[in-house]
Amino acid sequence: LGERYRRLGPCGADLGHGYPGVALFLAELAALTGADRYAGTARAALRPLPRLLDRLAALADEDLGAVGSGAFTGLGGILYAL
To answer: Which of 2, 27, 56, 81 has the fewest CB atoms nearer than 10 Å to its CB?
Structure first.
């Protein structure tokens, strides 16, 4: 799209580029500033996670391996954000 325009899309579930990373940032911002609005927004950002984790738990072991366990992607990133 070039330098002038950005493409918007839904966030993923990884720590590096998804809503768990946004939630972690907002939680830290709330801790540093004492502003409750950031903490509330951080909690709201994590609302999709229980459903996602339930869906992941239902996957067969070989399919779950495709999700990954890295620090910034996959289950490792999600767990770190929690």
So the answer is: 2
